[in-house]
Amino acid sequence: MAEPTPPLFQFCAGGQPMPKDSEGKAKTIRILSFGPPYMRAFHLNWIAFMFTFISTFAPAALLPVIRDSLDLTRVDVGNAGIAAVVGAVASRVMMGNLVDMYGPRYGFGFLLLLTSPGIFCMAVVKDAAGFIVLRLFIGFSLAAFVCCQFWCTSTFNTKIVGSANAIAAGWGNMGGGVTHFLMPLLWQGIAMSQPGFIAWRWAFFVPASAHIILGAVILMFAQ
Fold first, then answer.
1. What are the beta bridge partners of residue 29?
2. Alpha carbon distances (Å) from 103 to 194, 219, 223
3. What is the rounded CA–CA span in Å between residue 73 and residue 54?
4. What sign does the dihedral 153-114-93-178 (CA atoms) show?
5. CA dist., res. 146 & res. 74, Å (int)
6. For residues 141 and 212, what is the distance between their CA atoms, to the nearest angstrom?
7. Using an 8 Å Cβ cutoff, are 203 and 186 in contact?
8. Tens of pLDDT along 16-57?
9. Which residues are within 8 A (CB) of 177 and not within 5 positions of it... i.e. 6 or more apart?
10. CA–CA separation, 145 and 173 (whole Å)
11. How far, in Å, CA of 130 to CA of 60, rounded?
């Protein structure tokens, strides 16, 4: 008798062995489970991807404050936005080769760690040129999209990998919206005890720290 096909989603915390195919890939998505190796990788994947969006679009979320603090012109703002996109496109091309050689876990982990200094440096930027360069550098982190899709593809069975990719990418993309809520909230909280022109700089320590923590967790605990 043929083995029954497991449901696409299992809304449980795990406990039983994950059903696997002949290639060792998961045949279902236990959306509430963080168990290794499949669901731990899945959740670290989309959470880390979401933070790359938060980091990349954090300057845009605080632009009204940053623009006045750095005396940015409309041209400066436009060039900074272009720089972020250029960084994302260029880094994704390079990341494709890296994950082919070293796998998505190493690619993702080191990408997060290597882009965190650019986010920290937002706290000390002094002029438009520095702002544009940092947006370019931080934009490199959006190469996480390549890692995210590669990781899901190598983790889940072909019958459900499309759903896994869609969920991970969709939840990760939420970071572009979350940052417009999170960063102003951080700025307002810090501004209660610090001047506004300092508060926005300190706010960048949150996504920068998240990059370091998630990068280390991925490298040490994911598979």
1. 9
2. 43, 11, 10
3. 23
4. positive
5. 32
6. 12
7. yes
8. 778 888 888 998 888 888 888 899 999 999 999 999 999 999
9. none
10. 9
11. 15
Spatial CB neighbours of 55, under 8 Å, sequence gap ≥ 6: 115, 119, 138, 141, 179, 207, 208, 210, 211
pLDDT tier at 60, thresholds 50, 70, 90 = very high
CA distance 112 to 126: 24
3 state DSSP class of 29? strand
CA atoms of 20 and 27, how far apart (whole Å): 5
Q: Is the peptide bond before 37 cis (omega within 30 degrees of 0)?
A: yes
CA dihedral 214, 41, 92, 85 (to 10 degrees): -50
Question: For the residues 118-129, what does the mean pLDDT come to?
Answer: 95
| C-alpha span between 179 and 196 (Å, rounded) | 18
Quick one: which of 80, 85, 138 has its CA closest to 111?
Answer: 138
- Supply the Cα-derived Rg of the chain in whole angstroms: 19
Which among 185, 145, 90 has a CA at the least distance from the CA of 153? 145
> Is the separation of the CB atoms in 58 and 187 below 8 Å?
no
Q: What burial class does residue 135 get, using C-beta atoms within 10 Å of its C-beta: 0-12 exposed, 13-18 middle, 19+ buried?
A: buried
Cα 145 from chain centroid (whole Å): 8
